[in-house]
Amino acid sequence: MGRKRKEKDGIFDRIGEEVNLEKCPECSEHPDCFCHHNGKCTALNACGGQGCVFYKPTEKALEEGRAAYRKLKEAKRHDLIQRYIKAYTALGFLDEEIKAADKKIKEFEAFRHTDFRKLMTQVPGFS
């Protein structure tokens, strides 16, 4: 069953990684950015005066992430999918597959508990 998860206190980004906002630079330039959190840029430790080189609207970042996941899946790069599984799961890219797997597990459990010998004795001409 595994160990119980410890309750986490703190601030987390979209994929569940803990973020220390004290180390993140201020960013009021792009509030729609995928890494913007409470007025800070969680992608950078320091801005260096260049502005944000990581800026991307959240929807565009999610769209590109889904496309990357589909390409890895088509290429059967399960090694890379496994490497990024936490992010893909947290962002919801695997929701449909998880639901389908749950359905198959329930079907298998129902099949496993069926007494086929008893069912076959009810078939006319079969003993």
Q: Which structural category do the helix and sheet elements fall into?
A: mainly alpha
Order of helices and strands: EEEEHHHHH
The major β-sheet equals: 2 strands, antiparallel
Number of domains: 2
The overall strand count is 4
**Strand order across the biggest sheet?**
1-2
Uncertain residue segments: 1-6
- Overall, the morphology is elongated
Assign a percent range to the helix content. Answer: 40-55%
Quote the average pLDDT: 81
The percent range for strand residues is 5-15%
Q: Number of DSSP helices? A: 5
Terminal CA distance reads 43 Å
| Gyration radius, in Å | 24 Å
Describe this structure in words.
The protein is mostly helical. The protein has two domains: 11-56, no CATH class; 61-127, no CATH class. The chain contains five helices and four strands. It has a two-stranded antiparallel ribbon. A two-stranded antiparallel sheet has the order 3-4. The radius of gyration is 24 Å and the shape is elongated. Mean pLDDT is 81; it is low at 1-6.
Summarize the structure.
With about 130 residues, the protein is mostly helical. It is about 40% helix and about 5% strand.
Fold blueprint:
Layout (H helix, E strand, L loop, with lengths): L10 E2 L5 E2 L16 E2 L2 E2 L16 H17 L3 H6 L1 H6 L4 H18 L3 H6 L6
Antiparallel strand pairs: 1-2, 3-4
Please name the defining characteristics of this protein.
single chain, 127 residues, mainly alpha, 2 domains, two-stranded antiparallel ribbon, 42% helix, disordered N terminus
